Amino acid sequence: MVRLPPYAERLGMRLEGDGARSGIVMPFGPSVLGRPGFLHGGVIGGLLEVAAIVALRPAIDDAAVTIKPINLTVDYMRGGRDADTHAAATIRRLGSRIANVDVSAWQEDASRPIAAARLTFLLRRPAD
Amino acid sequence: MPAAFDPLAFVRLPLAHHGTHLGIAYHAHGANWAEFALPYRADLIGEEESGVLASGPILTLMDQAASLAVWIRRGAFLPHATLDLRIDYLRPAAPGRTVIGRGECYHLTRSVAFVRGQAHDGDPGDPVAHVAGTFMTTGSW
């Protein structure tokens, strides 16, 4: 079972779906506001990263492995409005030391993303 | 033309948004750069075992510092949106330490601003993160 970190819970993020289809949903509100009426770009990036880790955890299936983000590249494509924001990840490669993950965020329509990100993670196994 | 941009007047505006919610506050600025501070808070932890801050708040810190740097360099408050942002996490910020994020606007065109920046937790020579990104003017809020 994946537990969300305090940062994610503080902003009202919740798990949605299950198994390979699982993702994160985040409500709109004053705590995630950027310019008036729109989501803050920083929290969109934070949501994408949480969704990537949530997808990686069950795929690795070993609680002893630590997942460290190396970098994150976000493209902002549409303004995030007053609506729930969903995020789901696709694992491009899961190696023994590196994982490459793509994540997309959308509101009403998954085919009209508000943002997408590419993330690289360092995986540290206890034997390393 | 928009009024001349005064960074100190801008950061004193009583605005409530994601940044203020995370406790991010103005720290310093220069001709083409701005710094914000993110004090350590337990409810911003990303990894409970280590107590390390989540990277989302650091991304927000850098986005805000770079954004203010753009308006300072432009000398005008032109509304803009982040087009893209890349962040390299060089090392985890030490639990308990305030993170300082400096954003610099190193090039401007009529509609696009190019930014870069670094974050550190006490020693600017030993940064925790590095960013590069662009902002695009939106024309209006």
TrEMBL record, chain A:
The keyword Hydrolase applies. One of its GO terms (molecular function) is acyl-CoA hydrolase activity. Gene3D superfamilies: Hotdog Thioesterase (3.10.129.10). Keywords: Hydrolase. Coiled coil: none annotated. InterPro entries: HotDog_dom_sf, PAAI_dom, Thioestr_dom. Pfam families: 4HBT. NCBIfam families: unchar_dom_1 (TIGR00369). This is Uncharacterized domain 1-containing protein. It comes from Sphingomonas guangdongensis.
Automatic annotation (TrEMBL), chain B:
InterPro entries: HotDog_dom_sf, PAAI_dom, Thioestr_dom. GO terms for molecular function: 1,4-dihydroxy-2-naphthoyl-CoA thioesterase activity. It comes from the Bacteria. The keyword Calcium does not apply. Keywords: Hydrolase. Residues 51-126 form the Thioesterase domain. Pfam families: 4HBT. GO terms for cellular component: cytosol. PANTHER family: 1,4-DIHYDROXY-2-NAPHTHOYL-COA THIOESTERASE 1, BLR7284 PROTEIN. This is Uncharacterized domain 1-containing protein. It comes from Sphingomonas guangdongensis.
